[in-house]
Amino acid sequence: MNTPSRESGTLSTPGKQELHAQPRLVAESAALVAGQTATIGVTFKIEPHWHLYWRGQNTAGMAPSIAWGVPKGIAVGEIQWPAPERKLQPGADDIVSYIYEDQVTLLVPIAASADLAGSTVTLHASLEWLVCAEGCVLESATATLTLPVVPSGKAVRPTDDVPLFSATRNRLPQPWTPTSDVFRVKIEANRVKIDAKDAAAIAFHPDEAGVTIVSASKSGFSKSGSLEMEFEASASANELIGIVEITPALQPSKGQQSPAWYAVRLPVSGAAAAIDPSIPGNSSTVSVPSKFQ
Amino acid sequence: MKKWNLFSNLLCVGAIALSGTFAGQAMADEPKKDPAATPATAPADSGMKKDKKEKKDKKDKQEAAKLKIGDAAPEFKLMDTDGKEVKLSDFKGKVVVIEWFNPECPAITQHHEKAKTFNDMLTAFKGKDVVMLAINSSAPGKQGNGKDKNAKAKKDFAMEYPILLDETGEVGKSFGATNTPHCFVIDKDGKLAYQGAIDNGKFGKNGDKNYVKQAAEQLLKGETVTEPETKAYGCSVKYKD
Fold this sequence. Notes:
The structure holds 2 protein chains of 2 kinds. Chain A has 2 helices and 21 strands. By secondary structure, chain A is mainly beta. By secondary structure, chain B is an alpha+beta fold. Chains A and B meet through strand 9, strand 11 and strand 12 of A and strand 9 of B.
């Protein structure tokens, strides 16, 4: 039997205390290809009833952070974050969280320079994350992943962790452009209105880097095809950035469809800035380092 | 019988509309002056349907009138861990610093154990007209709740200021406290002058600029608070479900 080779990430944790979220570095392919970009993942197995946070405007909570240690010739791209679940705290409806439960995999593009062909590289990720149930714990660990780098043109085998990648891609927000028919975004003064065709519900998950959505716990969700929100811009945050979640209207012929997610990024001021449909952390490209020094 | 039910329902609707209007006017004329307007003293006898609806109306009104910088800070009366009653109005004429507190929240231990952010601030304000208070809005059964637990934390953290217990969460909600630590600075006239984070750090990492200290110092000098509002970080307040 042709067993796919598996490069399992090893984990070192400070202290003996059991982690509520167990991270692991995972590869989609058993090797990197010299001169090309691949995707690796940081996957967290989360204890039941506990959760991690997306990089949203969480009332409390904080998204995981990753500090990479990689050899020369390796370039690491921005994290691609899957769409989170929107949760309100029972009894405190002004406390909103954008969370991941059970398991989450953050995808990271990684490029190997041509010079690395024939070598083996070890990637180190220093991870820090806040994991919460009712209470929160700040945890950290270092995860590593060792992969061979093969010359371009050579076939690479998939690993056992491929399903983690496909499951995550199903929840990655799709690119959206202002001319899209799925929904339109209208920004006037300090208000934004999202109108979708045939939607049973709309939610907006505001990204921490974007304008602040006022009372997002209440205004960020609508059980109709229309969502209106007020925002506060600042010098450092003058774009509407986030994920629009569209729950399609029930169609008896199709049954209940799962929501769809779109990455939105729009300037909110008069300045006619170029519209970039990608959200920070959702660009799937990273340039290949030109030279291995 | 049916007709009578309909009629009594109509009466209720009338009463709600009237009370709603009245509450709105009171708010607009004298915001937050009357402690009875805050939910801290909301009617306890809520057995009747009418009262429930009124409560909901009040809640909506309160949200609409979310506490803003310059608003009168809502009066409260709470017990500390020694069973001593503390009122906000006891400190009229002083700058009051309030820290929303939960001894089991790692963002609290970050500033009370690993660093002594709050104690250092108290030391810095010794002999000045500044009062510090901690308020814990953890509900019974929730993380950080309990008189003994908080009395122990006060001792362990060597806090020389009271921890007030707000188990119903009513004071926390009247301030709009969402995090621990969520900090509020009230000026000598009882008006809200700062709300937000303790510093420019984040969960797990202390900052190098203490917003609360800055606000209190500016108030003592009679200056305008330059950064009156920031985003609090830390745990969520463990209100009752």
